[in-house]
Write the structure tokens for this entry.
Amino acid sequence: MTWRSPLALVRDALRGQRARENELRSLESNLPYEGLEKGKQPNRYFPSNAIKTTKYSLLFFIPMNLYEQFHRLANLYFVGLVILNFIPEVNAFQPEIALIPICVILSLTAMKDAWEDFRRYQSDRKLNNMPCFIYSRKAKQFVERHWKDVRVGDFVKVVCNEIIPADLLLLYTSDPNGVCHIETANLDGETNLKQRTAVSGVCNTHPEFEPESFNGIVVCEKPNNNLNHFKGYVEKPDKQKVGAGIESLLLRGCTVRNTDHAVGFVVYAGRETKSMLNNSGPRYKRSKLERRLNIDVLFCVILLFTMCLIGALGHYLWLNAMPVVPPYLVPPTSGHLYRPSLTSFYMFFTMIILLQILIPISLYVSIELVKIGQIFFITNDIDLYDEETDSRIQCKALNITEDLGQIEYIFSDKTGTLTENKMVFRRCSIMGTEYPHKENAIRLAVLDEPEAEEEVIFNQHARPLPTRWSLDSEEANAEDTHGHGSRRRSKVTGNAQSDVAFSSPLETEVVPDGKLFQKISGSLSHSQKTDAYLDFFLALAICNTVVVSMATTKRRRVSVSPQAKHTNTPLETLSSLMRNAGSIFKFCKRNPKRHRTFTEDSEENFQPSGQTEEVGITALRPCSLHPPSLSDEPALTSDNLRYEAESPDEAALVYAAKAYGFNLLSRTPDSVSVRLPSGEVLDFEVLDTLTFDSNRKRMSVLVRHPITKEYILYTKGADFAIMELLGTPYAEHFSGNKKNIATVTQRHLDCYAKEGLRTLCIAKKVVSEAVYKHWSVDRKNAMAAIENRERLVMDTAVQLEKNLTLLGATGIEDRLQENVPDTIQALREAGIKVWVLTGDKPETAVNIGYACGLLEDEDLVINMGCKDKLTCTNILDCTLEEVRRYNADPRNVDTTLNMSLVIDGLTLEKALSPDLLDRFVALVKHCRAVLCCRVTPLQKSRVVKVIREKLKVMTLAVGDGANDVNMIQAADIGIGISGQEGMQAAMASDFAISRFKHLKKLLLVHGHWCYTRLANMIIYFFYKNVAYVNLLFWYQFFCGFSATAMIDYWLMIFFNLFFTSVPPIMFGVMDKDISAEMLLGVPELYKTGQGEGDYRFTTFWVSILDAFYQSLVCFFVPYFVYQDSDIDMFTFGTPMNTSALFIILMHLSIEIKSWTVVHWIIMLGSVALYFIVTLAYSAVCVTCNPPSNPYWILQSQMEDPMFYLICILSTVVALLPRYIFHVLQNSIALSPFIQAKHLDRKDPSIREEWMKELRSYRGGGQVKRSRLSTPPSPTLETPVDFIHESLAVADIMGDDFTLNAIAKN
Amino acid sequence: MVKQESESANRPDNTAFTQQRLPAWQPILSAGIVIPGFVLIGLAFIGIGVALFVTSKSIQELEFDYTGYSNESPCSSCAQSVVANCKCSLNFTLTTLLQGPVFFYYGLSNYFQNYRRYGASKDDNQLYGDLSYFTSPSSSCSPYDYDSSKKPIVPCGSIANSMFNDTFTLTWTVNGKTNNVSLDGKGIAWWTDYNVKYRNPNVTPLKNAFNGTVKPINWAKPAYELDASDPSNNGFVNQDFLVWMRRAALPNFRKLYRRIDASGDYKNGLPAGNYTVDITYNYPVRAFNGVKKIVFSNVSWMGGRNEFLGIAYLVIGSLCVVMSVVMLIVYAKFKFPDEE
């Protein structure tokens, strides 16, 4: 590198800064500058593709790490103590020794950080050295380079199944239509293929792309983390601008699929890529328990200060009582004594040093370790593993495990959370005629059967190994080995999901309705191409964004995350590394399987399988998968077509069309080919696709009919979004039938909604050529716009979607997930209130509510829907008054009003207004279940926040879609269901599960365990520290409050560091107060954790008092024994230290509820370690630790029978009260836990009987509510209906009356 | 099978450990179960308690305060004077034999050897015989590290400086005949102190090692002349010095002074008769309200006399027995239905 003046360097740096900060970036090709020095490169200001996620560098590790560590308060406390210890007036120990704890902690943390950083460095290096192809002007071809060599402005070629190294603007693909398919699973977890199209009109040099011919300038926006938006254009030399959006951007980390190869221009590289910008560190939340804990730590600080004050005061009095200087009072060097007041002031600080362990700093470290252990067990729970998606539960928030045990409110999404979000076509209505599809319903009922024999989870546990899981997998695998993967497997689990989304037979196979089928055949035979039925099915087949692929192109799911996560916690790194390692392993393992699939199913369609063996990270050669869009493929029969859609509704509709013979054969951006039942293939030219957005709630496709050459717009969308756009009724216009199709269809739609079906309306519009021409100009302008592009594009869409003609409507069933009613029932028994917040209509929601057991027949369902505030106020007041009256009634003492509330979004808005909020909250407090319908994502999060803050309860939100993200983040615990709607929810969540039913075990078992374990561990930790430190404190009364320790300082450190540190951690990770079977069988046990829970103010103080008592015993038993004897200091301290160890460990033994091998090993190991280490230390240390004199003390003590007698007596006396308390508590005041434990000991058959009895007892305890409330309501009519259309006083009175009547019954 | 692995690579291991299904012992502490435990512990404790109590009772202990606070006290004159080597004697009579082996202690009260700065005021390396620390004692000894003329003090520090310097001789008067009771000063310190922890520098004569150093301010004689009668009992391994250097745990303590030499008339202990302890009174304790004592005691396997432990064992043992009765009542009343 040549020398450049510093000024030039500064100028260059400034210019680079400006270039990076600029809103718009102009990038040109690097090729003309190839080989030139760096300063001449046009894109030198932008970061290269090499990524660096490490925090430290080798040289500056120590200072940087120390700097980082001293940001923690705990470490500052240590440093403060050390500094105090270096002040001669104040020090309690040798100053060097006081450095030990801080050094140990700092170096341990530093080692952990260094290791993490090293692993990050390794994964960075691996990523940076991944191979890729970059075009070189010299070589005139793409040459193999590494990822780190990629720079902005390069041309990169990616081949099939390769991971994209940087954000590329797609310029060319091997596909004649300029399409490239990518899988974004690495970024957002969505497994469906996405289509990306090359920027049109930039590179016309077919068949091979010549990067050197590219001479445009790429203008793009500043890098941002939005994965779904990109704005940019290519400016050609002739100043013509070609717009480019996200549809032309290949994102780093995605995988190329179904496309032989593609070439892109690097726009963002390295840390500026969207995937890296999206990569934020782990979430940090404080759990409720930890917040409580901090208060108690504060109490400890107060306690410490009090004790130190007592020490200082005592020292003052002691000194004051001294008439002259006694020989043992060492004067300071200056020769004369300090004044007592000053000395005792110093003594205060010395005491702080001596009693420092009272502040349980090690508790924080231990809690972190315990949580790592707890998360290990949660993620390893095989019951929370989903066989179908091969996914475990993921814990993203590492420090709120114990919150799972304290949940009082659950807010759940409906679609995809309670339901499968696997759409099954059920019914349709065409031109006002309803086709119920009875045959299809029968088929679904048959498929349902395996689900009917659901097993309750605890039964599975009761069985010895192998459990159901292993049995299942064996079956599945056995069948798999000689069958076509997905189909067979799906049958095993009823509604399984295969590798490709939305393709279980449940969804793909629709049995056509006989009548409708005849009708279509009829209309076809009359060859009426414009028949409405034909249009309807064509719309189903065309109006979507479904990607067609071959059934045999089975894709592997890639789970390598190309971005190393910025992690702060060891577990996160560990697990991500393990994940990475695992997926690499998977690559290797999977290849043979791929191989097999190819050879078995698709010899003709694919190149010899030999090539595919190199698929994976090392895949350099393209595996020539033919793009599916080639419709002339010989083997393209309708059977091996597979549809992949972003929304499951779409796939369901396309499969439905297929059932009637309308096969969607292929889809490219420009054309759609559909085979009609007659066998004829129609190629529609797609002129435009007006994609779905949540404002319009509809999507449209504008096509040109190949025969009639008409411009036709097919639209589908939510019923209200379509109905308001209808023009002249189609029927009047066409067949002369006067009945209003819209009205009839609306009736059908209402009917569908009551059945719990999701409804969509299908409409069409014929556009005249003139209108189209005019519109397309607007459209193009809108597309090329950089500012306000989204709004402009939407405006053009709205412009066209007018005066539609209704074709019909469809009803799609969203099936309940397995075990949902059972889970909800269990959660409810556990004292958790379940709310459902959904965007669906009230009718659909209520039906799902009944189906999943959220609403029960005997419930009093209040349906709140009011148009104005006054009505709302009235309803709230009336209902509250009613509840009050009901509760005041002496007849109802032992029963509760089982009330449920159904409320819609508009009403909710009013109820949440400040003046009604309190009343609303008061009302919902009495409701067993609340259903909020038609709520927006924002409302969802508001509801969660209101309940959380007003009622001061622990909330949990569970959802699966992007619309649940707000809610998930607002709740104390957010749970994402990694389902069909992508991974946004799962990525924003604290825990990601794959099924709703997993909540049951997660909360009832793991939540309970984690909570009780951690709560008990923390209480024990406080106790342990106080008990041990108090020994020193009591000694102060006998040594003139001079901060003398009668225990060797090293042994004190060892005591906390080695002898008593592991057992509490083990206790926090492994203790099991009740078995999982009992917790699942008797959900009431969960209630102990709610509200205050186990960890209460009283529990803390009781354990502190116990610690005081025990330390008194532990100190005064040896004291009275050795009173007036010739005992020396450290001999005096030895039995104390030993019995303290025994007391502290035995105390834990009383608390441990279940002893496994691990418990025994650790407990006995701790005792053994104590003796071994102490003996070795006292044998070796002759002059090592100056003031103290540990040499041979334990040895001589162990020869003395008195030592053992003292230890036994101290231990027994210290633990007797706690032991007796436990025994009496377990014998007299039988808590549900003890009962459950007793039950747990019985053999399974008796236990089940008991459990059944317990449950029936519970059932009996509740007065049957049917006499109080309205009769069971299968439909909407029956519940007490509070929907007021107008503010009619009579109405309210009427309702009031109804309620009264009910109550009086 | 390769295939199986790849199908469910994320599947957790189904082991008893990861599934938290390790076989476990789950004791439920309830009244019925703990009764035998309480009975056993109670009986065992009562047994131990009785043994301890009986043993403790058999131990005889004679304790004499010679501080001289009251005027009747034989050493009251010495206590008031500041003369060095003030002599006084203390008489007592034994009516029966004091069973041997008999230990002769001196005791101090209100004396805080466990005071923190006092405890730190010594130099272990110097006491280990390391000559380099003779010339430059550790600063922990300050202010007793150098004297006013900046000469190093050996042994340095406050503990050594404040060494107890009263001496005692015991005479037995029987039938008008006075016999000197021979006192054994060997092996009264810890074996490890004498052999390992404290060492004299390897210089002969020992005196030369102390060249250029001064004796502690309060000492009458330098360290190498502590015991004129026994040259091996000098320097840092002087038994009295070792006993003093092992700091007492509590402010009221006794330290072993001598053992009664179990030979001749004293084979079985101290026979009955009149005894006189001749005291060389040097150590000032009145200033800080201290008390000086002489103690004669015989020992058993449990050391000196201690009634506390025996009584404590008896009380706790009885308590356990009582608890077992209470538990029995509780058990009968609140029996869990399925408990056998």
